[in-house]
């Protein structure tokens, strides 16, 4: 019976150092940019959970509907007793849809947001006393690794939410091939991928009427102000998100409302009026382009499920 969560490895990360290095580097180039992994402090993780409940953000509910429909088939494909490894586990909501049908031997939640990871896995352990629950705080955008002893024989990696879309295509290929090498022969990857669609639907999802995505984007500046020595002021920026059709990605930016100088760790950075800080890409794939990517990383596509409108897809790939 699982009474507690076993915490592994890299925990705690030196996130403050990583944030400082990324801000100093990203603000020194033109166009200015920051990697999206820094969205996820506790407040950012909570805002992301709120985004997932917005009516415009079809991704979460569509993926959940697909998983509910496909779970029995997934269980037949994977069989019981696996190590279930969830990358970017966040609130560990979606995995709950799989647990009863998959009956894994162990669950490992992997996330960059330390306290969020711990509270979510603790709740999971309390709700599923038969499950052996583990937590691994890790920045898998740098390198996909696992605590020792995991995925040695029977493993299923779960990477829901189209989080792969936040990697550039070369980063996505590298991550998939690292993951492929971590899995035992016959090990599987169950992955959610958002699909290219009408620009209106895509842009609405990243510009919800309640302003939650805007708050999520602007929280990055709050985080810089709180964690670094900085006077950056979120009220002097606005949220912008649009679909870049050529690159097949939603881009999120923070736009400076004025010409301003921002101080960070003793250095000064000039933002011109309307200048952008590029904070996120969210790549959208076709079924064919994702399958080709997965194959190029060494995976064999075994099954794929979509909703009737083909908004979202879930793929089962094996090593
Ligand atoms: C986590 N990731 C897949 C989300 C996405 O849709 O790219 C993050 C997000 N950004 C804005 N809204 C949601």
From TrEMBL:
The keyword Transferase applies. One of its GO terms (biological process) is methylation. Residues 20-317 form the Histidine-specific methyltransferase SAM-dependent domain. Gene3D superfamilies: Vaccinia Virus protein VP39 (3.40.50.150). Keywords: Methyltransferase, Transferase. It comes from the Bacteria. It comes from Azomonas macrocytogenes. The keyword Methyltransferase applies. One of its GO terms (molecular function) is methyltransferase activity. Pfam families: Methyltransf_33. This is Dimethylhistidine N-methyltransferase.
């Amino acid at each position: 019976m699982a009474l507690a969560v076993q915490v592994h490895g890299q925990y705690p990360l030196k996130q403050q150092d990583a944030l400082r290095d990324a801000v100093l580097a990203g603000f020194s180039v033109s166009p200015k940019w920051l990697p999206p992994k820094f969205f996820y402090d506790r407040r950012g993780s909570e805002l992301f959970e709120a985004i997932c409940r917005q009516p415009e953000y079809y991704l979460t509910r569509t993926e959940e509907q697909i998983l509910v429909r496909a779970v029995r088939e997934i269980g037949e494909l994977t069989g019981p007793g696996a190590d279930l490894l969830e990358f970017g586990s966040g609130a560990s909501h979606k995995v709950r849809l799989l647990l009863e049908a998959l009956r894994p031997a162990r669950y490992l939640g992997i996330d960059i947001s330390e306290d969020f990871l711990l509270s979510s896995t603790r709740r999971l352990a309390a709700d599923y006393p038969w499950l052996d629950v583990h937590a691994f705080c890790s920045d898998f955008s740098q390198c996909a690794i696992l605590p020792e002893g995991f995925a040695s024989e029977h493993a299923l990696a779960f990477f829901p939410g189209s989080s792969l879309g936040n990697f550039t295509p070369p980063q996505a290929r590298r991550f998939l091939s690292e993951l492929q090498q971590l899995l035992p022969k016959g090990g599987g990857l169950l992955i959610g991928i958002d699909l290219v669609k009408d620009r209106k639907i895509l842009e609405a999802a990243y510009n919800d009427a309640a302003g939650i995505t805007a708050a999520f984007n602007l929280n990055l500046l709050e985080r810089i102000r709180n964690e670094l020595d900085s006077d950056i002021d979120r009220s002097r920026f606005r949220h912008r998100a649009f679909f870049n059709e050529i690159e097949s990605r939603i881009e999120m930016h923070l736009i400076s409302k004025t010409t301003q100088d921002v101080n960070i760790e003793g250095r000064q950075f000039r933002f011109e009026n309307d200048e952008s800080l590029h904070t996120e890409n969210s790549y959208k794939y076709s079924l064919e382009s994702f399958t080709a990517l997965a194959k190029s990383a060494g995976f064999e596509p075994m099954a794929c499920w979509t909703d009737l409108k083909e908004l979202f897809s879930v793929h089962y790939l094996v090593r």
